[in-house]
Amino acid sequence: MKILYFAWLRQKIGRSEETVDTTAANVAALIETLRARGGGYEAAFRDIKLLRCAVNQEHAGLDAKLSPNDEVAFFPPVTGG
After folding, report:
1. pLDDT per residue as tens digits for the range 39-58
2. What percent of the chain has pLDDT over 70?
3. What's the half-sphere exposure (Cβ side, CA atoms, 13 Å) at 58?
4. How far apart are CA 81 and CA 66, in angstroms?
5. Most buried residue, 8, 37, 53, 63, by most Cβ within 10 Å?
6. Which DSSP string do the residues of 8-44 spell out, in sequence order?
7. At a CB cut-off of 8 Å and minimum separation 6, what does 14 contact?
């Protein structure tokens, strides 16, 4: 699974993307798997209310189902003005 990190998530984790092997069935399980890595991952995923995600370039919720070949992107909420 390809995972993309944007904005402050990229800064905390120290990379903009990576490929991971995971059996996570949904986005929430993927977040828990990543958070368990500790360090920057734990800091980046500490408060999931501050996160948004997309699965295969479509906005998705924490319950969105995942498949091994999906692309998942994590980013902060976007505001306009």
Report:
1. 999 999 999 999 999 999 99
2. 96
3. 5
4. 33
5. 53
6. HHHHHHT-SEEE------BHHHHHHHHHTT-HHHHHH
7. 40
